[in-house]
Write a structure and sequence with these properties.
Elements lengths: L12 H65 L2 H5 L2 H11 L8 E6 L4 E4 L17 H6 L4 E2 L3 E2 L6 E10 L5 E9 H8 L9 E6 L4 E4 L3 H4 L6 H7 L5 E6 L5 E9 L4 E8 H49 L3 H6 L5 H28 L10 H18 L2 E10 L1 H8 L1 H18 L5 E6 L2 E8 L1 H20 L6 E9 L6 H17 L5 E2 L1
Length: 518
């Protein structure tokens, strides 16, 4: 009878973790797609609200301008000069009050037949050109209503203007028209009063679609008819936001708001290309964030799988060489086994640290605790490299005790060792934390210093003077001779520098000991 054998489907721990992470990412991807769509939708609604708020703000600005102009005209109509029919007095009052409305270009008094009687820009009695006719103004003025004109070109300055007119009863002279003019460039300035971000633009158009003012490129567009799609936008309710063709012929997202009290509309628009670019940027950010999340998830899963795989292999390796009863217990791979692994790794790490500490101690002098020559030279090379990086210079001190042999011969090696320990402590106390000191053998010590070239010699002399003084104060008649060598130009050869300091030390001994010498 043949047994059917099948090969088991096996994956490594890291592969299993990768499969799990990919499965858990599926709901996240679905949620990310849904959230992205919602963000785009809400972002589009936010942009529409902002566009509408810009149009409302600019419409409010224009409405406030008209209200101030109307208030100024009404004040003149109820003045005492108007009631008395005092033309000169009314002209004087109009000239005096016009600066209260800086946006007003001129204030004119016009007879019902259309003959100008005065303008504030001219002296009373000056010869004035006939004012532009305002279609349908007579009927509205007869009703006592304010009239807002369409755009026209004023005769004198050839500039685009609009006018506001109110009826005025000039004493016994009958009904007249009091007219205040505002230049198109003033309206354009009000449209651009608040900085518009990006390519956001605002325009003021009348009911017929004629452009009265624009926040930018006013000279190009003022006096032109808006596109058919913009005129269609004007027929919609105030506050409408739609995609349409702008004045410049570009596809735009536009909002229109009617100006209360005038047949005008403020249209604010931004190119569709700019909005699409913002949407693309949002999608790119979402995609990048999603990619980062997926990459982090995969990386974490792989790292966790590799970590668990290593732990399993360590457990297997440990128990394959351990006792048989523990090897049989490891088959279940439970928490106890992981604890065993952690304990074993901790012991191994402790042993490694102990070995490292033992190696470090081997590089230190057992008596004084200072670095032995190999470690001292290595530390000096480190100081030289740091000095080269900081553009400093390096100095070496070679210290040899005077009278040490006599102390050993007279009082024994124990007293000599005690003296060496005291001298090592003095050296540590006299140097800076960034300097290094070492025992070079017998009663010889070395120090490496680093400082700017302008201060290095002074520091080396100060350290040497302190050491000579303090060692000379020790009991048993000890002293020291110190040789100083300074390397002021790279490359800094540490061993050669120490040899130069050794030569300078012998120079100090020949000069009488208990001193230092370069």
């Amino acid at each position: 009878m043949f047994a059917l054998r099948t090969r088991a489907f096996r994956l490594s721990m890291s592969q299993w973790m990768l499969v799990i992470s990919l499965l858990t990412l599926l709901p996240f991807l679905g949620f990310a797609i849904y959230a992205g769509q919602r963000m785009l939708s809400e972002g589009s609604a936010d942009r529409d609200r902002y566009l509408l708020s810009v149009a409302q703000d600019r419409a409010g600005e224009i409405q406030l301008l008209l209200h101030k102009a109307q208030t100024l005209l009404r004040v003149l109509t109820v003045s005492k000069a108007a009631q008395l029919g005092d033309l000169a007095g009314l002209h004087e009052l109009a000239v005096a009050t016009r600066p209260l409305h800086p946006d007003a270009a001129d204030i004119c008094l016009i007879s019902i037949e259309g003959r100008p009687l005065f303008c504030t820009s001219q002296a009373l009695g000056a010869d004035l050109p006939p004012p532009p006719a305002m279609q349908g103004a007579a009927e509205q003025l007869q009703k006592g209503e304010m009239v807002v004109s369409s755009l026209y070109i004023e005769p004198a300055g050839k500039q685009h203007e609009v006018a506001l007119s109110v009826p005025l009863q000039l004493g016994q002279l009958g009904m007249h028209e009091l007219r205040l003019t505002i230049r198109s460039q003033t309206l354009s300035a009000h449209l651009a009063h608040t900085a518009l971000s990006g390519e956001l633009r605002a325009a003021l158009v009348d009911d017929s679609g004629l452009v009265l003012a624009r926040s930018s490129e006013a000279q190009r567009y003022v006096g032109q008819q808006a596109t058919e799609s913009v005129r269609a936008l004007l027929k919609l309710n105030s506050g409408s936001v739609i995609d349409t063709l702008g004045l410049s012929g570009r596809d735009m997202r536009m909002a229109q708001v009617a100006v209360a009290g005038a047949p005008w509309h403020v249209v604010a628009g931004v190119p569709r290309a700019q909005l699409q670019e913002a949407e693309r940027s949002t999608l790119l950010q979402l995609a990048l964030l999603g990619a980062i999340c997926i990459a982090l998830s995969i990386a974490c899963s792989l790292a966790l799988g590799l970590y668990l795989g290593r732990q399993m292999r360590k457990v297997a390796a440990f128990h394959s060489t351990g006792p048989a009863d523990l090897a049989s217990e490891s088959a279940s791979f439970n928490v106890r086994e992981l604890h065993v692994v952690a304990h074993a790794l901790a012991n191994a790490a402790e042993n490694e640290r102990a070995a490292s500490d033992q190696a470090a101690r081997a590089q230190l002098d057992g008596l004084t605790g200072l670095a032995r020559r190999p470690l001292f030279i290595s530390s000096g090379q480190r100081i030289a490299a740091e000095a080269l990086r900081r553009r400093h210079c390096v100095a070496a001190l070679y210290i040899d005790l005077d009278g040490f042999k006599a102390l050993n011969d007279s009082r024994g090696h124990a007293a000599g060792d005690a003296a060496l320990v005291r001298v090592a402590a003095l050296i540590k106390d006299c140097i800076r934390s960034e300097d290094c000191a070492g025992r070079l053998g017998g009663d010889e010590f070395g120090v490496f210093l680093s400082a700017p070239a302008s201060a290095l010699r002074h520091i080396a002399m100060a350290v040497s003077s302190r050491l000579v003084s303090r060692v000379g104060q020790l009991p048993d008649g000890l002293g020291c001779s110190i040789g100083i060598a300074v390397a002021e130009q790279p490359p800094f050869e540490i061993e050669a520098l120490l040899a130069d300091a050794d030569g300078a030390m012998f120079k100090a001994k020949k000069a009488g000991k208990n001193r230092w010498s370069f």
